[in-house]
């Protein structure tokens, strides 16, 4: 069944994708103006004051970008190393998938915002590319160890396109607020992956769990590297797309929500686990649920206590989900969710959307002052408004209650799109012509990697 | 002796602490003004020049904060993974303890600086919270593997309160200089932990070392992750609370002191160790002693050579401490110090205080110019002085020599407070009603964690 | 053969080096003016506006510095942990070597740019020191596991001096463009190391491979930590020494080149490897080749597609080099290259130089506008030109084609200097009086470290 030939064909097509990307970039993609040499004298280094010069010359969002960059590649990559024989694949396929997906996401999102037939790239494009890469990596978590790399990369390419379209609908057309991407990134990635997993589920007689599923002591330690870098840089993820006071609020709220979710995770893990012992799965994942659950509201006026409250709720829901809901879903629906993305991304994202609806209903011109129309642009009056850097389309004149309704609509719509998109993708991945893993290859690096003979010596 | 019931009670009380924190935040804590929407037009994004706008809108100390954030959770967490069966606890309890302690520290330090009955939080509060978390984590290093998580968290909550009060006395009342926290953070944390360890010491006939104490090859590698991130970001820790030229001086001095301490550590480790082989304990810990020893003086005019000299002294004292002093303390005083915090934090902090006294004595208006009264506010004349951003209380008109004396007083006082505070805390932790680890549970994750059956496969 | 005495002598001399460094710093090194207290009122904190004040007070290149700092110590350190019994040495000797070399590089490069007999240090010196440290670390990769630490440190000290002189010739005299250091850092480090390795090669009958050479599953996972942090922060390395639009271009180009090299690496690794399985050596190393190959041109107008093209070429050349060229070099020339630095640094650096020649030929005043003379100062007219911050020497009036020729001359000259320098260094390291590793000590931590008896338990 597993002839080398088919394998080669898959890899060759991926290389074809890379070459096609190169050609499209050659035709359509150019540096943004801020990356081009300017005629003015500033660019040749004659700043009048050295200090000012230095300030101006550094790209201010670069540290934020680098934090997110670490989250995507080290955070996601190592978080998924918890399986004892799947560490090469966890870190390697994360790198492979993200490397191709970021190029594709910059392009596809660029097509949605083209100017004069040209896609312009800058540091902001890289931030966009990295955030987009999170989406298929979340889905990969649901499927971890049960797909070939070719299946994974095909899924990633399709998923990015559907994600970008859905994001465009939610943010540019429905104008919901979601600066941390809980709705558009986390809910989408989780339910897309679960839908794929549902379609790929084994026949009734067969268990989805391979013999190699499960952690070792060392693999659990590697996973903590992923957990910690995700936990630490989550405030950067949630605050990357906002500025000034909004940004600092997003940072403070995310920090507090994560701290509260972490305390709640440890306490509940001990209370609900077998023999009251702590469970590393909870520690590795549920501690992060606070970051997801605060995502859509992190720049709103939720107050420090609001952030802590959301963190407590998210940590509790996540641990209880791992303990009680996931076994049910696996048994009854036979949907396998290797990393438990439903508990880390899915449910916390729904929580975030609900809170975003509540806080949208509470938003007034009095408390948000001049920033209201910036945060909730659909609540502006429907006049055309322009400023020096961009033309802002007129709002829809929504009331607070209406905006709240749209926030709920947004999560429902996103889940529907994700489930349908994932299901269709799953059907393609199950096609007879697509190579699949045999049962003994599940959760095992040896299926696709050269592995040293005498391990651990 | 270890009934699940008692365990549950402990965790439930911790959850109670989290709920109490939520309530107190709800009542007393609000966003700082810089996090609130402004009425001015700037905040709605209409900056006249895009470039300027971007500059203004990014929180300038955020990269510094993130470096410290990595130090606390990845640095401390992984540094303590060197024990071969205690990696889950090292990373997990660091995360748990720090997550609860940062919320509590922001609150407690906030009460000491309340305005109109309200505690205001901003990014600076998070930096404060993270630096405070270092204190109980240092103490945890002394006790590593010999307490239950409930004992640890109780200690952390008490310790933060005493630490914050002592810091208030040293910095706000005695007005000593200590920008890197060597006196208030490192010395305090180390001697508090050692005092707790002294009270918790086993009876004379019993050895404190569990059968599981000691590293494995893999656990030593994980510990190097912690060492390296602490080593790399230490300049950020020491320079986070100063600005401009002071900050750059703190960065350069800390970098040089760490480099010199590292070279000294390797050389001395080979010279004093058995068979002239290098000892990973020294490499993991003594290389960092330079960062502690330069902490109180890193923003002073110590010169690049001064930084290197301090690094050499600190590395040497630390390695010799591990090799000769720690065995003595363990045998004679029966004070167990699992990570050797006395050699990494205790003695280097005393060195730092001594150097701070020396350099304070050398401080003059001539070399420090206008920054003298900023660095040594007690050396100002006792007039009330105000500037645009804050009201600075008048100085005490101290001479350089007097300031030097106060620097020495500060370290003595801090150690006295830490030892008394730690001893009292230790007595509480030893109370008959408090659950303790049995001898075979020492340094073993299995006491509190679900551990995979077949390790390392 | 291995008497403790000789060992001790080596370590004592290294301590002597540290003491000599201390003395030279004491005599010649001072803080740069921007680190000194100013008489103006700004420095005492009375900025008129708090926001502006904060902006001004933070050192803008500090985040860039910290990224590079992580690359040197965590990136290089962990990348070299792939050998199963050499992890202590990989991380430890990286730390040791870099700690002494950064002090020495700051000094030596300072001597080349002295003012009034004084070397001034600032954050820029630390960036310089860290980048310089990469050079001997690259060479260490070629020799990994086959030298004593004393041999390694001696090599590092000599290599830094030759590197700094060569860099001075290339950048200050020949005025080639090489902002990412592909020519001066990567090519130099690789060919210097290979030359040393050639001289140290074993006699014909003997194989250079020790019995311990080769990875374990766990050691390969540790190496991925190094790979990922190098991969993530490479845009910072390449963009650290340029500003503004140049900097953002360097960031975007490096990001895209790395992504394309990564996809190419995975595809080719599967296609050329035994049984079409992925090879961790390729994933750990060739994914990074894109960063090297784009180094010399990353700030030029190569276009996003140019960056992707260079990445594809570099990834392909690197994988093919590991698969086909390295075995040839090892067998025929008996030059051992433990980490394959020829494939990661050597050949990609040559590719970078060739591309830099091509793009230099295409450079015109029309496309580079006012920045042409900044990027290619030798293409300016030969008049003396001064601006407010520095005096720029007149250019040589080169044409584009001439500049392209100089770029090629630069890589040839650099390789010649590196090979001669490495060969001479190798002869010294082979001297009868120098202690060497015996065959059974190759690639084994136990030769120089205390290693826990029962590993991996």
UniProtKB/TrEMBL annotation, chains A, B, C:
<keyword id="KW-0325">Glycoprotein</keyword>
<protein>
    <recommendedName>
        <fullName>Ammonium transporter AmtB-like domain-containing protein</fullName>
    </recommendedName>
</protein>
<dbReference type="InterPro" id="IPR024041">
    <property type="entry name" value="NH4_transpt_AmtB-like_dom"/>
</dbReference>
<feature type="transmembrane region" description="Helical">
    <location>
        <begin position="254"/>
        <end position="273"/>
    </location>
</feature>
<comment type="similarity">
    <text>Belongs to the ammonium transporter (TC 2.A.49) family. Rh subfamily.</text>
</comment>
<feature type="transmembrane region" description="Helical">
    <location>
        <begin position="95"/>
        <end position="114"/>
    </location>
</feature>
<keyword id="KW-1133">Transmembrane helix</keyword>
<feature type="transmembrane region" description="Helical">
    <location>
        <begin position="221"/>
        <end position="242"/>
    </location>
</feature>
<dbReference type="Pfam" id="PF00909">
    <property type="entry name" value="Ammonium_transp"/>
</dbReference>
<keyword id="KW-0924">Ammonia transport</keyword>
<dbReference type="InterPro" id="IPR029020">
    <property type="entry name" value="Ammonium/urea_transptr"/>
</dbReference>
<feature type="domain" description="Ammonium transporter AmtB-like">
    <location>
        <begin position="61"/>
        <end position="430"/>
    </location>
</feature>
<feature type="transmembrane region" description="Helical">
    <location>
        <begin position="346"/>
        <end position="365"/>
    </location>
</feature>
<feature type="transmembrane region" description="Helical">
    <location>
        <begin position="308"/>
        <end position="325"/>
    </location>
</feature>
<feature type="transmembrane region" description="Helical">
    <location>
        <begin position="7"/>
        <end position="28"/>
    </location>
</feature>
<dbReference type="GO" id="GO:0005886">
    <property type="term" value="C:plasma membrane"/>
</dbReference>
<feature type="transmembrane region" description="Helical">
    <location>
        <begin position="152"/>
        <end position="171"/>
    </location>
</feature>
<dbReference type="GO" id="GO:0097272">
    <property type="term" value="P:ammonium homeostasis"/>
</dbReference>
<keyword id="KW-0812">Transmembrane</keyword>
<dbReference type="InterPro" id="IPR002229">
    <property type="entry name" value="RhesusRHD"/>
</dbReference>
<keyword id="KW-0472">Membrane</keyword>
<feature type="transmembrane region" description="Helical">
    <location>
        <begin position="64"/>
        <end position="83"/>
    </location>
</feature>
<feature type="transmembrane region" description="Helical">
    <location>
        <begin position="183"/>
        <end position="200"/>
    </location>
</feature>
<keyword id="KW-0813">Transport</keyword>
<feature type="transmembrane region" description="Helical">
    <location>
        <begin position="406"/>
        <end position="429"/>
    </location>
</feature>
<dbReference type="GO" id="GO:0008519">
    <property type="term" value="F:ammonium channel activity"/>
</dbReference>
């Amino acid at each position: 069944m597993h002839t080398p030939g088919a394998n080669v064909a898959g890899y060759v097509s991926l290389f074809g994708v890379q070459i096609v990307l190169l050609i499209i970039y050659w035709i359509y993609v150019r540096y943004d103006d801020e990356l081009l040499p300017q005629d003015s004298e500033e660019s040749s280094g004659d700043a009048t004051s050295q200090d000012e010069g230095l300030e101006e010359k550094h790209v201010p969002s670069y540290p934020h970008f680098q934090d997110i960059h670490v989250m995507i590649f080290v955070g996601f990559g190592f978080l998924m190393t918890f399986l004892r024989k799947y560490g090469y694949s966890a870190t390697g396929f994360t790198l492979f998938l993200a490397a191709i997906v970021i190029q594709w996401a910059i392009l596809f999102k660029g097509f949605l915002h083209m100017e004069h037939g040209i896609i312009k790239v800058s540091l902001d494009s890289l931030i966009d590319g990295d955030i987009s890469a999170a989406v298929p990596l979340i889905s990969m978590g649901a499927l971890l160890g049960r797909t070939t790399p070719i299946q994974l990369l095909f899924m990633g390419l399709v998923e990015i396109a559907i994600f970008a379209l859905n994001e465009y609908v939610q943010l540019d057309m429905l104008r919901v607020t979601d600066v941390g991407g809980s709705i558009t990134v986390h809910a989408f990635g989780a339910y897309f992956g679960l839908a794929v997993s549902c379609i790929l589920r084994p026949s009734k007689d067969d268990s989805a769990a391979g013999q190699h599923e499960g952690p070792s002591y060392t693999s659990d330690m590697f996973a903590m590297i992923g957990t910690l870098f995700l936990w630490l840089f989550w405030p950067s993820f949630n605050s990357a797309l906002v500025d000034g006071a909004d940004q600092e609020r997003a940072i403070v709220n995310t920090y507090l929500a994560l701290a509260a979710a972490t305390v709640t995770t440890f306490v509940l893990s001990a209370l609900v686990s077998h023999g009251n012992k702590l469970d590393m799965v909870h520690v590795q994942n549920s501690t992060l649920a606070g970051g997801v659950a605060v995502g859509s509201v992190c720049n709103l006026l939720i107050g420090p206590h609001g952030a802590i409250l959301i963190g407590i709720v998210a940590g509790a829901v996540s641990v209880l989900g791992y303990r009680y809901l996931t076994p049910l879903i696996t048994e009854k629906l036979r949907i396998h969710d290797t990393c438990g993305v439903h508990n880390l991304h899915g449910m916390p994202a729904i929580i975030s959307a609900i809170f975003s609806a509540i806080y949208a209903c509470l938003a007034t011109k009095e408390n948000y002052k001049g920033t209201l129309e910036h945060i909730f642009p659909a609540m502006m009056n429907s006049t055309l408004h322009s400023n020096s850097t961009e033309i802002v389309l007129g709002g829809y004149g929504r009331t607070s209650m209406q905006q709240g309704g749209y926030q709920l609509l947004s999560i429902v719509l996103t889940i529907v799109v994700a489930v349908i998109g994932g299901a269709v993708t799953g059907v393609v991945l199950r096609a007879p012509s697509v190579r699949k893993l045999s049962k003994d290859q599940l959760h095992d690096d040896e299926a696709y990697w050269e592995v040293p003979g005498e391990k651990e010596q």
